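Bump. Still looking for OsmC family peroxiredoxin structure tokens.
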Amino acid sequence: MADAHSYDVAIEWTGNLGTGTDHYRSFSRAHEIIAEGKDPIAASADPAFRGDPSRWNPEELLVATVAQCHMLWFLHLCSTAGVTVVDYEDHAHGVMTMDEHGGGGQLTEVTLRPEVTVTEQFMVDKANALHDTIDEVCFIARSVNFPIRYEPRAHTV
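Sorry for the wait, here they are.
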């Protein structure tokens, strides 16, 4: 039997402005994402859906999750392939496409733009190529139903 890992989080709505959800505009979408032993994450809906722009929204968190998993696998693969990474930054971009009725939508793509600094010039091409192998092993990439595109840039110190 394969190993299984569990992840428990709680969502606590903090947006009752006094009258609950008695009207679409009478409540805040504010909530917190909570996990034992961790600081809460202040979250809300996307501002386009009456959310608070100063808080994380689910769509941003999903894009961030894709980028995080990719980075963690990339760093692991570099360490086993002899590529020494000294800096990594990604400016990920996700696109949500609304359905024709405007009532729902879905993420339709995520583009990762990792900028990686390696210690030696001979590592640059190898580092860029490793990005293309991550979909095979990344837990999150294997779990989503939208394409993930890569625009990596590796360079030396």
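The domain at 58-156 is CATH 3.30.300.20 (GMP Synthetase; Chain A, domain 3).

Edit: fixed formatting.
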